[in-house]
Design a protein that fits this description.
The chain is mainly beta and 567 residues long. It has three domains: 21-147, Immunoglobulin-like, CATH 2.60.40.420; 149-336, Sandwich (Immunoglobulin-like), CATH 2.60.40; 353-555, Sandwich (Immunoglobulin-like). It has six helices and 32 strands. It has a six-stranded mixed β-sheet with strand order 10-9-12-17-14-15, with no helix packed on it. A six-stranded mixed β-sheet has the order 21-20-25-30-27-28. The longest helix is centred in the N-terminal third of the chain and has 20 residues, at 2-21.
């Protein structure tokens, strides 16, 4: 009896301490037009609180985040909290027509959700059209109050947002691409914290600069907020220790270069251990698709050692070639989880739902669009998963239809296998029109609560081979293995890392290759999965998971907020 009383008392003290350590963190995001000057000219962009990038939101694990969004822009808008689990708060996830309808111009909405079981770097961004090009910011989750990092505390923490910039209206660029059935124009510059850097015209007076103290260690929280490009990142004469990805801790990984796909984050420690002076941090494209145009520029920031009086130009790192798949794959495939970290859970062994999903480009009928043109008339470019090209609903969000049992919005028949088996990565089939033709549909995969899903994501060579960053809302997943060519279960399943696989919310599926991911569906709701190259999302490279409610009220999705935006 005494032992039982002591246990209950201890549990109560821990519970009360966890409540006491949590806080309500409140922010306001005013979204509207902003005139910025970049690349020798002015451009009106959509921005938040008058800045590009938008404000950094800092919270502690366990906090509740309350964000008031006022849409003063001329466009429909939602905000997605990229990588946040949204446990039982799927209504706040943010993707338009998936969990809510957009906030129309002149209206407001307040997002409220708890952030638990996650620490590290995430980000927030618009989730309507291509607005996230300029509507985004960092979301930093520090350890719960009273707890520490699983690595020595850095001297300073610095968000580094990698992005893209266009001299023209990004919305006009997308609308033109949709109208003519082709790809959008490439960007005019890459950026570090909103600035192109010294190597672009009319940019050196605003280049991002980080002042460092010799001998001190800094935590750089790197976010790839670019629309369509993976990016290599280096600092001249400095090495990094990777300690986190996508708000999960990793085993320390030493490197002098990282690669970050759109949607991904990487936390790195670097020590200012070089001679006093100036050193460039720099990022350029990793472009894996052959003969596909991309922005072939380099964005820079400056690491300046305090006390340095050098007038020499900053030292430039030697960046990988744009098509250096070997370096990219080495980085992506060598990361592992820190199993002694505060939120680590072992990878589930038993699999309930096994899926093999092809990911790639294709063609779709132009339909009634008389202006549609491409290299394959009368077709327009499309993209698909298992030959299903995702079509967004328009009169009700998927989550509202799921919660209320409304029919006619989606079907629960997303296939577990592609309709045709072929040599998926054979480039000789890249122009095979019968294989490229896709079917439009709003088809989702329904899974039981707490079941385990394993997906083989298999890239195809249709139209082009390419590395595809695939993002899953509502969950982190374990990356069990990745490789090139066609996945072969007999050959490749023995390679699975079930001991300390890296956890991510966004996986860069290797060019001409595959990746195997696994997750436990312990979060009821509808969760979007899509390519985080914005050129491919409107083409249909997406699907969704409908996760059933669990057996108890604490595992059941609550009703929607009364003020949730409606279509």
């Amino acid at each position: 009896m005494a032992h039982h009383t002591i246990f209950l008392l201890s549990f109560a003290l821990v519970f009360l301490a966890s409540i006491a350590s949590a806080a309500v963190v409140e922010h306001t995001l005013n979204v509207g037009n902003l005139t910025v000057r970049r690349l020798c000219g002015e451009q009106v962009i959509t921005a938040v609180n008058g800045s590009f990038p938008g404000p950094t939101i800092r919270i502690h694990e366990g906090d509740q985040l309350v964000v008031h969004v006022h849409n003063r822009s001329p466009y429909n808008l939602t905000i997605h909290w990229h990588g946040v689990f949204q446990l039982l708060s799927g209504w706040a996830d943010g993707p338009a027509y998936i969990t809510q309808c957009p906030i129309i111009p002149g209206n407001s909405y307040t997002y409220k959700f708890n952030v638990t079981g996650q620490e590290g770097t995430l980000w927030w961004h618009a989730h309507v059209s291509v607005l996230r090009a300029t509507v985004h910011g960092a979301l930093i989750i520090r350890p719960r109050r009273g707890r520490s990092y699983p690595f020595p505390k850095p001297y300073k923490e610095v968000p580094i947002l990698l992005g893209e910039y266009w001299r023209s209206s990004i919305m006009d660029i997308e609308n033109l691409a949709i109208a003519n059935g082709g790809a959008p124009n490439i960007s005019d510059a890459y950026t570090i914290n909103g600035q192109p850097g010294d190597l672009y015209p009319c940019s050196s007076n605003k280049t991002f600069k980080l002042n460092v103290v010799q001998g001190k260690t800094y935590l750089l929280r790197i976010i790839n907020a670019a629309l369509n490009n993976q990016l290599f990142f280096k600092i001249a004469r400095h090495r990094f220790t990777v300690v986190g990805i996508d708000a999960t801790y990793t085993e320390p990984y030493d490197t002098d270069v990282i690669v970050v796909a759109p949607g991904q984050t990487t936390d790195i420690l670097f020590t200012a251990n070089q001679a006093n002076g100036d050193y460039y941090m720099a990022a350029n494209a990793y472009s894996s698709a052959p003969n596909v145009p991309f922005a072939n520029g380099t964005t820079t920031g400056i690491i300046h050692y305090e006390g340095s009086t050098s007038s020499s130009a900053p030292l430039m790192p030697v960046l990988p070639a744009f098509d250096d798949t070997i370096t990219a794959h080495k980085f992506f495939s060598n990361l592992t989880s820190l199993t002694t970290g505060p939120h680590w859970l072992p990878c589930p062994v038993k699999v309930d739902n096994q899926m093999f999903v092809t990911v790639g480009l294709g063609l779709a009928d132009c339909g009634a669009n008389a202006t549609c043109s491409s290299t394959f008339p009368p077709y327009r470019f499309a993209a698909s998963m298992n030959n299903v090209s995702f079509e967004f609903p328009s009169r009700l969000s998927l989550l509202e239809a799921f919660h209320s049992g409304v029919g006619g919005i989606y079907t629960e028949d997303f296939p577990d296998r592609p309709p045709i088996q072929f040599n998926y990565t054979d480039t000789r089939l890249s122009s095979n029109i019968p294989l490229m033709l896709t079917k439009k549909g709003t088809r989702v995969k329904k899974v039981k609560y707490n079941s385990t899903v394993e997906m083989v994501l298999q890239n195809t060579a249709l139209l082009s081979i390419e590395n595809h960053p695939m993002h899953l809302h509502g969950f982190d997943f374990y990356v069990l293995a990745q490789g090139f060519g066609n996945f072969n279960r007999t050959r490749d399943s023995p390679k699975y890392n079930l001991r300390n696989p890296q956890e991510r919310n966004t996986i860069a599926v290797p060019v001409g290759g595959w990746a195997v991911i696994r997750f436990r569906a312990n979060n009821p709701g509808v969760w979007f999965m899509h390519c985080h190259l914005d050129v491919h999302l409107p083409w249909g490279l997406a699907t969704a998971f409908a996760v059933e409610n669990g057996p108890t009220p604490s595992t059941t999705l609550p009703p929607p907020p009364t003020d949730l935006p409606r279509c």
